[in-house]
Amino acid sequence: MDEVTWIEVLPRHREHALRQRVITDSLTLGRAWDNDIVLDDPHVAAHHLRLERDEGGGWTAHDLGSVNGLHVEGERGRRDRVVLAPHLTLQVGHCLVRLHRGDEEVAAEVPLQRRSPWPAALVLVALVVLVALLELWRGETGEPKFIRYVTGALALATLLALWTAAWALVSRLFAGHARFGAHLLVAAAGVLAYSLYDPLCELIAFALSWPRLELYAWAGAWIALAATCFAHLRVVSSKRLRLKAVVVGALATLAIATQALTIADRRADWGQPIVLQRLAPPWLRLAPARAPAAFFDGAATLKARLDAARSEEPAGDDAAAMMMSD
């Protein structure tokens, strides 16, 4: 046969692929050393399967009586015989086996990433620390102390390093490359985005008198965290990005819904929380000031509602508790 055929084997841990040119019309795969292709997988039999090429150039896989059998990836049932088609993948134990023709098209060449992520990552880390120090200074109510700024900067840098190291470890385990610089760039960008987002929400809520914007600003934090995690997953591997986006989005939605229910329950017990923790200078206020008469009218309306509620008899368990106390 003059047709060029290659066999590709992805081992159990997917760290690398074995690719070997097929020069015969029959070959065996298994754990024994007398096979043409030796598979290092305890779930593979000593002689697991045989591949045979017919006169037309087609290939057929035959199970050689193994315990775990022969499977087609994506299917549950085991097969005794599989006629190999283009892009069909066999599952042998935890290994994946594919055949490729010599004239099969391959993906386009990927350009080399010659630009290092480290300069941009270090610039973003410096900006993150600078924004954190400015926020610390803005919240000072007493005499500034140098040690507070030093410990704050060191704590933030340590958290960034630990977060980046964790993702680099995941990347090394599942993709074979750590890419610490790229993960540091993603982490710093996410922290910087949230560091600017939070005070901006507070400033807009004060300037335009939109308390709800500050009340629900925490939802943006979950969205920023989800976007950062998705970017980390993309650095780890660019495969199945749609699935990764769906999973990360679903987890973020669940977290937002859970926190919204918790806040609503807490608000029912403790009332309206404080909206703005820090007041900005009056010249930043863009919304028109309310007239004193409108303020006092609102206070009178609220007082009337409270007086009416105070005069009503409690219902349910509250009424029973009052009767028992009497």
Describe this structure in words.
It comes from Dokdonella fugitiva. InterPro entries: FHA_dom (IPR000253), SMAD_FHA_dom_sf (IPR008984). Residues 27-77 form the FHA domain. Keywords: Membrane, Transmembrane, Transmembrane helix. This is FHA domain-containing protein. The protein has eight helices and ten strands. The protein starts with a strand and ends with a helix. The protein has two domains: 5-101, Tumour Suppressor Smad4 (Sandwich); 117-270, no CATH class. It has a five-stranded antiparallel β-sheet, with no helix packed on it. It is elongated and about 95 Å long. The model has no long low-confidence stretch (mean pLDDT 85). With 326 residues, the chain is of the alpha+beta class. It has helices at residues 118-138, 146-175, 180-208, 211-215, 218-236, 241-270, 292-311, 317-325, and strands spanning 5-10, 18-22, 26-30, 37-38, 49-53, 59-63, 71-72, 81-83, 90-92, 95-101.
Please render the helix and strand layout as text.
Layout: E1 5-10, E2 18-22, E3 26-30, E4 37-38, E5 49-53, E6 59-63, E7 71-72, E8 81-83, E9 90-92, E10 95-101, H1 118-138, H2 146-175, H3 180-208, H4 211-215, H5 218-236, H6 241-270, H7 292-311, H8 317-325
Parallel strand pairs: 3-4
Antiparallel strand pairs: 1-2, 1-10, 3-5, 5-6, 6-8, 7-9, 9-10
Helix pairs in contact: 1-2, 1-3, 2-3, 2-5, 3-5, 5-6
